[in-house]
Amino acid sequence: MENVAIYMRLSKEDEYIKDESNSVTSQRLMMLNYLSGHEELKGNKILQFVDDGYSGTNLNRPGMQDMLEKIRSDLVKCVIVKDFSRFSRDHIDLGSYVEQIFPFMGVRFIAINDDYDSKETLGGISGLGDQFKMLIYDYYSKDLSEKVKTSMVALKRQGKFVGGYAPFGYSKDPADRSKLILDEKAAETVRKIFHMALDEKSMYQISQILNEEGVVTPAVYMKQSVGRVDANMTKNLDQQWETGKVKRILDNEIYTGTMVSGKVKAVAVGSSKRVHIPEEEWIRVANTHEAIISAEVFDKVKELRPDGFFYGKSKYLPHVLSGKVYCGGCGRNMAHSYQGRPKFLCNSRFFGGKGETDMVGDFGSYGGREEIDCFVGPGGVDIDASGVDSNSACGCTDMIRDEDLEAIVIRAIEDVAKKAVSMIEVQRTVGKVVGEKRRGLEDEIKMLDVKIMELEQALMDKYEEYREEKILREDYLEQKVEIEKNVSNVREKIQLLEVHLVNGLELQMKDVTGLEVFGKYLKVEKLTKELVDVVVERVVVRRKRQGDEWKTVEVKLNA
Q1: 169 and 151, same structural domain?
Q2: Domain region containing 80
Q3: Is the whole model's pTM more than 0.70, yes or no?
Q4: Are residues 230 and 294 in the same domain?
Q5: Where are the extended beta strands (E) located within 143-219?
Q6: What is the pLDDT of residue 202?
């Protein structure tokens, strides 16, 4: 008895267009009916995998990854989907699994609506028909994404809330999921934060007060309220308030009753990369929901926070990297201090320990960003961890001086800039070569089409000779078989060349989307807030033991 996996996927686009045939329930019923109607599949254990609200343009879905892991562990020998598009709308991914990976692993693949069963086909895809279906699904995904994006923009301009989770302080109206209503308990925390800011308390002081009073963070509150956490909000359930969390609330104009959307956009369909939209292009619709604080309070707090930050009555402006530097031991934002030599310090020493959270983990997977590990300081000198308090609360590096950190970040930016320029040049060169190869394939197909026409004409000529009794019937039939064989061979060559065109040689090129912006940063004299906002995602500082102790800085860039 073998395990049979049935995979169901419902994307946000499917949900939005309300196609009942694509619902998870409908997909499940279709596949169970299919199983009951095929004797060889009856009696097998059925494993169900579901991804609700995930795009089909990539395979980064929890249900999909769980299923693929079981396949790799040889626990699944048959996969059933409603159609190809439920598995993937990217024809490269889909073709790789159906034509290569699944046959190699001995996994049977069935797409019910596409009338496809790998058991009936040798070597994966049965022909160009299935190849073109994959291309159509890929195109449909991009076309649908554009249509949904247009509709979503229209809803945003009407002041509708289109996010997956309501902002802290609100919940979705059960009667109208595009409308926000007050969550009074969380709203009181929001008011408290704004009132403390009006009293000119710094964001650090505000976070201290909230922690002392035991106020739960937005991530913890969401977990308690709805049972799960928005992955975009936090990588873990951090029990502590910190300046970054306070800043996000003080920056959010939605608390004035104004719906604000369109702040970021994806660089391409299916891409996890996002780019920030200039504030003047944001979509704002006033009075769409009940305000938690007045517009006057919001504007006053904004005035008290130069350059987006508020450090109480400090005479210093915030460091350009403030809010982007994290401790590698506990995951919290590192605080910046101008006392003595300017530096960043781990917040754990102030919060009295790690608490219940430990974010020591793989920061390298964060957001799919470009990752640069820098182990040296200015001028190539190793950064020694001597002088670091070994009794720090989180047990990792808790301090790094401004000049050291800035030099490392500048070096990371310049390194990626060089890589970007090189990759873009390679892409241009490869693009020319690929273009020439495609033109060569197209020319060869045209020549073969002409060859088929010539052979078909030759066949007609032979038939005329036979009809006019110029050649014997046996000679005609013998030559007919030979010509038809040649036609078949030429058609097979054309099919093979067309498959190469369908696969798209240019798709084998490395995606360098987003790297263009780095081209102008080959030489960085000084970090500015504008530069940091554009290219720096986050900086993680941790202690790494390698014989002696070294201070390790990981710079995640938006590349």
Answers
A1: no
A2: 4-156
A3: no
A4: yes
A5: 170-173, 176-182
A6: 84
